[in-house]
Write the structure tokens for this entry.
Amino acid sequence: MRIAIVTETYPPEINGVALTVHNMVVELRALGHTVDLSRPRQPGEAESGTDVQDGARLLSGSGLPRYPGLRFGWPATNVLRAAWQQAGIDAVYVATEGPLGWSGVRAARSLGLPVFTGFHTRFDDFVAHYGASWLVPVAQAWLRRFHNRATATLVPTRALKKELDERGFRRVERLARGVDTRLFSPQRRDQSLRTQWGVPADGLAVIHVGRFAAEKNLGLAVRAFRAIQGVVPEARFVWIGDGPERAALMRDNPDFVFMGMQRDENLAKCFASGDVFLFPSLTETFGNVTVEALASGVPTIAFDYGAAQEHIKHETNGLVAAFGDEEDFIQHALLLAGSRERRQLLSMRARETVAPLSQRAVAQQLIELAARELAMREAA
């Protein structure tokens, strides 16, 4: 199949959407399908014109205000329509809701192609965290209008499908998320890295992995760790990632360890070298880091939604707090911090949980959705 993918974020940008789309591209090509990828240029790439680099069509874009390191693409409906017509594209997947994403939907519709949109980011939640709660209904209406123009909206969890169904999204399909269990593995635990963090072999390393931004509820992670220190005074808190809140976190918490952005094997080592993963976010559509932690055998504490609701069974392979209940979250953190035996048991079962999750199977599911839609259109 010849499938076009449109995204406004892509590696080397580091975020859940970029990495999810990249994995999809890799797996689709490994399955023998042709992928036509369109994305904005990133800093250091060509400044003008339309060109192709590493199999991607590079289009104009700009930096995202108040979110350094991320970009959005400018409208390019005519460019996409002409390219897809020439390439004989069969179906389109649009991963982002920015101007370039809208162009992708318009171009696909004008060519009569099936177009699937991915619901990756809770922009309706984000605007509230950035001081514009009055915009929440506007953001929700905008998201609904965008996704309802597609053949179907693809979401990673059953709970999100139910929510969007109830909010008037017309056709919502579940497309599961996979995890690279070869990369993320307990076997990557590295005592030399733990020593660098100041954690002995029998010490406690609490980790947080993600983007350091206002909508990630990072203050709760800090409070939970301070409570842990009351039980295990020598515990260390290691932060992997970057973002606009990093400077304030470093200023206010000089005893924390900050590793910056990590990728691939370095990231996998960081995960596997932790003993407890705190994930206090309330604004994820999924939360890829949750399944990466599980694959790494790291006991995880998260709120009961997204990937945690989909894959964590409370007190079997991790701990889930009632959604938004911060005291519940902190109590779970204390429970894990105070019991090595509990951590070891959850670690073993965490790995078992995600062992069947295959990124290739997810790519195959997208192809099957597109093939089914094409077959229905031919039969009509």
Notes: The chain is about 45% helix and 20% strand.
